[in-house]
Amino acid sequence: MKLTFARTGFFLFLLAFSFLLLPQMTHAAVNESEYIVENLSTADIPGDDGSGLVISWKPLPQERRIIEYRIYRGITPDSLFFIGKIDVNVKTGVMGDVMYYYDTDYNYFLDTQAKGKLRREKGQKKDGSLFRRYPRDVSIVGPQLEHYDILGVIPEKDYYYHNEKIEVVTETDTTVYAGLKLHEFSGMYKKLIADHVYYYSVVAVSESRYYCQHAESVIGIPRENAPEKTDRFYAAFVEDVPRLQFEWKLAVFADDHLDHNVYLLHKKDFDKFNKYLDEKIQKELNDIAVKEDSTLAVYTPKSQNPAKLIFARYCGYPYTPSQTAFVNIVEGKIVNDNRDIDVKIDVKNMEDYLFVFSFTDRTGYETFSDVVSANSTTTDQLPIVPPFMIIDRENDKGDYNRVMWGKPIVYLTNSTYLNEKKTHLQVNYDFKTNKNYKVRNIFFKVFDEEGKEIAYVNEYYQDFKIKIKLPENGNEMNTLFFEMTFKCNNDVGEDYILTQILQYDEQTQSLAPGDLYLEDENVDDWEYYIYKRNYSDEEFRLSKKVAGTQREVFDNIRYGNVHFKIVKHFDDEKNLFLVRPSFSVRMDDEKKATIASNLYPEEFEKTILQYEDEIANYVASKDTLESEEEIKNADDAIEYYSKQVELMKDHPIQKVAASFNNPKERIKFLDKSRHYAKNSFEYKIVKSNGKGIFTETNIYIREGVEPVSDENIYLTSYTGNGIDHFFPRSNWFNLDMLPAVIAALLFGSLVFLLIKKAKKGHDLFIRPIAGIQEIDNAIGRATEMGKPILFVPGTSGIGDVATLAGLAILGKVAKKAAEYDTKILVPVRDYLVLPVAQEIVKEAHYEAGRPDTYDKGSVFFITTTQFAFVAGVNGIMVREKTATNFYMGMFWAEALLMTETGSSTGAIQIAGTDAVTQIPFFITTCDYTLIGEELYAASAYMAREPLQLGTLKAVDYLKVIILFLIITGTILSTTHLTFLINAFPEK
Amino acid sequence: MKRQIPLLIVIILGFIFVIHVFVPHKASADFYDWYQTWIKAISPFMVLLGIMSLFMVHSTKIKRKVPNWQYSVITLASLIGTGAVGFIWGTQAGTPFMWLFKNVQMPMGATMFSLLAFYIASAAYKAFRARSAEATVLLIAAIIVMLGQVPIGIKISKLIPETSNWILNVPNLAAKRGIAMGVGLGMTATSLKILLGIERTYMGGGK
Asked: Domain A18-134+192-220: which topology?
């Protein structure tokens, strides 16, 4: 057989693809049993909310070349679904002896990205038990819902307007749900349910993506546990007030936490308390043991908690709760009626008491911290919180509030000697300020160890470094003292002085910064906690925790709210997931109860009637009740339902909602009202040393502001909005962009003026650009040689202005080429550039009167891969022997590869790009290069039309203005006048 | 109409996106997000355009048996083959597709990229030939900057790294900023020309 070019190519191609089977073939010879993971087991995660399991197994040896381990879970051993994987580096394998996978918290369950149909896992037979992820099919996913705690996240608009009312009728009652399609959920997340049985298996996947046999499935049962213990709790006693202050570290697993509590324990009861703790631990262990073996006896603790509750607060799940609290001691007592707290305490003998902190969870478990005694202090030893204020952050879309406090802070960060004699020192610094204090100058005074001033720097332009000239004995100076002051737009006061030392550090062999002091206060000792609460929250939450040097924070407030709904039911006929149609609007301040509404007005009315019936039933049943506990329960129920009915009937929000006849208008009102409730926040600040010594401010109240008018119905019942609650506003104009707007308007005006001038026939001088002038000659050369022209319109996309400029030049070149009947080849790298370039070349041929010479195949796509594109273009240059090469547009590293090849084929080359890094390569290898802006000027230069020339000339005039501003700015800055450079935004 | 409607779309949307830069309002941000979803929807169709073009160009070459048509056979076979293995076995690590990527495409790409080193040497030789006063200045500056980047530079003289830094941070940076400013203005002018309908070449033809 004759070995032709085609046959050789085909043979090589087959050879390359035969390698694909290599990995599969290598696996075929091995023993399958060696690829099954061993020691697969599950264990409950301690200290969590009862929804966590850890799955562990022994990884396969490195020589098995495993690429990933896939984990499967199900509620029966014969149907396990893929839930996650752990990737493994094939070369190194797994370092440890055990691998872990944590199936805990809310994590992915289902979304619209899921596959449509249920599919068995790769390598599974028809009766195999492993499946891929849950599909979008409601009939398959629906029955799984009851075995998990499923949280559906639904965007507001979808919940309000895209639901379908579904009535589920059972033998006992009828329940109304809101039915939603899967795509109306932004996602569904699952949590395991405590005491439910789950099955797990693991599959190892080899390097060749061979799915090995799965391990025998194992059972996992998550168990309810007591909360984890906090390892940091501090108590402080402020003697002169008197007041007790507490601070603690928050837990990692806090999903089921209910309250944060503090107890007072008399020292004499310490042993009793320890016994009580032992019994609690025993009870927890017994609870789990009984669940696993029901024949075991139930353990009942005998002792009572000798510690007395002095503080309790709802933890405010799902937000990060506060981690500080204080209780006032009034007349020797700590009293809180809401929590039934009434405890006597002897403030004169505070050393007799101990304090203990606890987390309680929703199942009644409680975990205590170690007991601590209170550190005594007085109010003058507590930190002073500078005045703070809240304003809406400017120039944003309405998703930030600005919290700011105090005066600016400057601190040294490091230093470097600039010469060997150590007489020149560069000191780097940083400063923090806020909107109230715009820093104009920072003054640095430097003193030696003897207190002699050795340098003074006026930092009028803050570039975060200063240079100091030290005396000749600079290398002997081990300590420098810095005094730093400010000049701001608002007066900071003459006595506002920050001090810091630079001390020689042997390790770094440089002067390292010490602690920063503001008067006598070590700034580094303190932190600021920003607490906030909206109309829907019962308690404050921790928004931010920042260092003592910080002077403002931007508090993010998401403007797009979502509804979190538990998904337990489904309708497989209509393909719907069912959620509760009731939703909360806000919290009522007085009644401390949620104001709830319903998607369907008639259901809202029914709920009121239902509650009224409940009240009547409880009232009637009271006569028949005997025990005090039953009567109390009935009273509590009556109080609860009465409160709810009152809120549903009489609250202003409900009254306004009821006044709408149009259901959509009603929902729109409730949506907006809820939006104000969720996104309006009140703030307070705590300054703390992290150990219970802190000062907490009152809630910030803006003075001199009128209350919200009732005319805006959406603000019904939000009278404090703008005074104590702050709602971030969407801004219609970004003031930072003002200079850009002025420049744009100026430029636009110049363009119009100059176009008008050009149209009147004025000769607008445009400096000659050699590269453009030579385009005609280059095309002529190709024509004379009878060779094609190559035009590369950059390697960027259509969204790049340089590509558009390149395409504009292509139009002119293609027209000329068509006139001369010269072939033009246009390889492109971007899909969207292709049809545009094709249309341009086609139109150019039509304009030149030569539609017959247009060849659609002359403009073609090669590849999006950078260097493969280069290979393609270079191949064209070599094979077609192009006479003229144009490179017009954006280029990266491929530029030199193309132009050097073009240069070696002897083509005349003209390039144009705005890529600064590629310009040198073009200049070196091309005959002519359009540098930067010349690329954009080329089409106007070639067209010579008044419209184009006017624009080009306007650019020149704008350049003159910019040049003037640069020179003026330089002169002014040199003379310490920085107003001009400050007038322009930094970004 | 064939031209006016697309032109109108460009002008209206162009001005909307110019306004979007200055308006941070929620309405503006939401509109931009909505537009981004359209981009995602359009992207797959763009891939089709490219593949169709590739097929047309190379199938024509094979059909007409133009010189070197065999390359076109390999190109199309590779395109189909790579696509097929991707569709059949997926694109995860360990699949034949990734094998092809790692063992065929990556080495070939790296080969092309490594050629750059030789091309840079060749280009540098051309640039540094001291044929004129400007080229001589360029040559001297390049030598100083190169020496300033290597330890031997400071051994020769402490002035070399300092001069090297000065060249990079003062004249070089000034020139780069000058070009960047010109590019910025050029981009603005081109964008304005497109928005005002002065520049219409991108629609195919100037009129």
From this structure: Immunoglobulin-like (2.60.40)
